Amino acid sequence: MSKTNPLSFKNINRLAVPALLAGIAEPILSATDAAVVGNVQVNATEVLAAVGIVGSFLSALIWVLGQTRSALQAIIAQYYGADKIDEISTLPAQAIYFNVFLSIVILAGTLPFIEGIFSLYNASGLILDYCVQYYSIRVWGFPLTLFTFAVFGIFRGLQNTFWPMVVALIGAGVNIVLDFILVYGIEGYIPAMQIEGAAYASLGAQGLMAVLSLILVLIKTNVSLRLRFPIHPELWRLVGMALNLFVRTIALNVALYLANSFATDYGASYIAAQTILINIWLFSAFFIDGYAAAGNILAGRFLGAKDYDSLWQLSKKLTRYSLFIAGALMLISALLYTRLGLLFTKEPEVILRFTALFFVVILMQPLNALAFIFDGIYKGMGEMKYLRNVLMIATFLGFVPAIFIGDYFGLKLYAVWIAFSVWMLIRSGALILNFRKRFRPKVADS
User: Fold this and answer.
1) Angle, in degrees to the nearest 10, between helices 233-266 and 384-394
2) CA 7/CA 405 separation, integer angstroms
3) In a shared domain, residues 187 and 281
4) Residues 132 and 279 in one domain
5) What residues contact residue 278 under an 8 Å CB cut-off, 6+ apart?
6) Quick one: pLDDT at residue 353?
7) What distance in Å separates the CA atoms of residue 147 and residue 103, rounded to the nearest whole number?
8) How many Cα atoms within 13 Å fall on the side-chain side of residue 248?
9) Which residues cross the membrane (predicted)?
10) What is the chain's Cα-based Rg?
């Protein structure tokens, strides 16, 4: 193992910065689609609304099934910390095949019911038509993304975030270029495809990322992707962890579904503004999540080595770093308050609704930072059951009552973002208090 102090500023940032850059690539894919199609000449508000609705649903699917990445990453990191990595040589391939199989099942199960699914989001008329066009193309990238995520989990468990960063940045760059080419077209060469062009751009980027991930895992690691039997015992632990995260992510997506459903019901300009707000929120969340990824990787390593003092120090350092990042994001957002919305659309009514709410997203950044950092630490420790319980409580005793009460009093998008604030407050508070209760005595006794 490396002799570098794993808690040094240099080592934490060696893991966090590439993970940060890789993490923001996924929201960049959706945000780029939204920004480019939001500036088309025909039906811009409806197109933007459709991209927001489909993006929310696809994020739900990816987050649900992508949880095997976190479980695989945690197990590999724990075996790495215990210096027993050879004992799980058959596990990565089994986990990847399991992940891809699940994604194909979901793909086949949703395609026949596209209109019904997006009708549940209160989409209708032109918005529903655009949803169907966009989803029927983008959904084919679903297995590709889950394969890529699983490979990222292997690299991160091995304490390497560099190659996932390379793949993610290349994918994001290609997506941006293809978005402009396919959405707007090139006169005399490529016709303007509008929303379908955005979908093909994302699909192309996802395919490239999957191919690059496959090549890198074969040439940069000793991991074999050949499926070998018998089933490794840790696969059942991985499935158990993933199931807890699966239930947890369903609760998470109840919140996202309700947010988009209520916003769509308020009107096209509301869901368009909500699309901008949620994309910026997700971008900042994934930005902070770079340090959560470092917490995930190192927490698993320290727990495997039973080094509780280092685990405690890790939580303190990552808290400081993440709050600094949150402060920087708040400052940048405040300085670019209206301009950020104008990147997505020039529609006056949409911008008006965006600017009325954006301050709430800005003020949430410290809560996001704390919640995501401790979420990453708990994932690294394999504490998926507790994470599941926290999110269930935050969603069904926090978010759901808050959004329905706010809607009852006519607060509209304010109700949505007040509910998100309550949600993040419960999540961050529960994780911090539980961590201190569990590990402070162990540090004192060591």
Assistant:
1) 20
2) 45
3) no
4) no
5) 52, 56, 256, 259, 260
6) 93
7) 9
8) 24
9) 47-66, 96-114, 134-155, 162-186, 198-218, 238-259, 271-298, 318-338, 350-374, 386-405, 411-433
10) 21
Q: What is the mean pLDDT of each run of 10 residues along the chain (446 residues)?
A: 68 80 68 72 75 78 69 79 80 84 80 85 84 88 86 84 89 89 84 84 92 92 82 82 76 87 90 87 78 83 84 92 92 92 87 93 92 89 87 95 96 95 95 91 68
**Six-digit token pair at 307?**
């080094």
Picking from 358, 298, 370, 274, the residue whose alpha carbon sits closest to that of residue 327 is: 370
Length of the chain as a residue count: 446
Tokens encoding 420: 């998100």
**Look-up: residue for tokens 């949150």?**
326
Note the Cα 75 to chain centre separation in Å. Answer: 20
What is the tens place of the pLDDT at every residue in 348-387?
A: 999 999 999 999 999 999 999 999 899 889 988 878 889 8
Pair 294, 15: CB distance under 8 Å: yes
Number of H helices, E strands in the chain: 19, 0
Residue 375 belongs to some domain of the structure: yes
Is 90 in the same domain as 223? yes
